Each structure stands twice: as structure tokens, then as C-alpha cells.
């Protein structure tokens, strides 16, 4: 392993914290989430889905935490842009080249995980893809409730794409919820009335 290449890689993936999701800008979102934020929540969703589907949660999380690394080099490409060139090929090429910098053992494993995720050749690959889509639907729901109605299209498309029963159940519940529901009933008021 070349330590300098590993150090460079670690600096490089920091770009994912700067890469904003470009598609949300079409719906008018001024400050969309980053690729890194997406990968973190998708990984946690993936772990939950894997347990629900009785699959390997660590494998699913491994797929999700690395699946967008190539975007550090090519940026977040939109589905509109995909009409004109292959985002998938560019992202895979970037991912494979990045992985080669980490030594043969890591590169081989990460490439296998990447392809398993992209091609959905295992239950874990299917779950990881569902988690990726589900995270996008959750983000879109938040944007819709904040007034970006154009983001409803993301939710509708995810609903058509999901494969696992667990992901479908979570999406259905999400559609009937508000993104602020989570803190209702758990906040603690700290004021005290005069004379109490």
C-alpha cells in the first residue's frame, strides 16, 4: 500500500461534503444536501432495511458508504444530463481509478461491492439500492414540506422503483408523516411560571 495515495484519497473524498445534489436545484432548492450527507443517511437506512429483510447489514452499509465516491471527481450528475451521456460509466471509471490507489486488497473488495450494488446481483445489492432511493425520497419529502413542490417527482419515482417490502412499507409511512414528527412529544419545556 502506498500511504501517500491513501492520504490523497482521504483528502479527495472530502469533496463529497462540497458536492451538492444538483437535481434538487431544478426544483428551486437553493442549498441542497450534499453527497456526503446523502451517503451517511442512506447507509443508516440500509442497515435498518438489511435487518428487516434478514440480510447482511454490514455488507449493505459497506456498499452505501462508498457508492458515490466517484462523484468526488465527476460531481453529482442529474437525470437530465444522463439523457446526453453515461453518468454510470463515468462514475464507475472514477470509482475504479480511485480504488486502485488503495492497494489491491481494498480495490478488489470495493470494486466487487460497487458492481454488486450497481447491478443488484445479491439481496444486499437490492437492499442497498432501495436504501439509496429511499434516502432520496426522505430528502424530497423534507423539501416538499418546505415549499419545493417540484421535489414530489422524486418521491413518485422512488415509489415505482423500490423492490423490497420493507422499503415499500417505510416509504408508505413516510408519505403519511411530516419530517417534523420525530421531535413532537419529546421536547422538554424549561420555563417555570412565576410563583411556582
Word description of this protein:
The chain is mainly alpha-helical and 196 residues long. The chain has a single domain (3-178), classed as Orthogonal Bundle (Hypothetical protein af1432), CATH 1.10.3210. It has 10 helices and no strands. The N and C termini lie far apart (67 Å).
Question: Topology of this structure?
Answer:
Blueprint: H1 3-13, H2 23-26, H3 35-52, H4 57-66, H5 71-74, H6 87-100, H7 104-119, H8 123-145, H9 152-161, H10 165-175
Helix pairs in contact: 3-4, 3-8, 4-7, 4-8, 6-7, 7-8, 8-9, 8-10
Give a brief description.
By secondary structure, the chain is mainly α.
> What fraction strand?
under 5%
CA-based shape: globular
Order of helices and strands: HHHHHHHHHH
CATH-derived architecture: Orthogonal Bundle
Features:
Hypothetical protein af1432, 196 residues, 0% strand
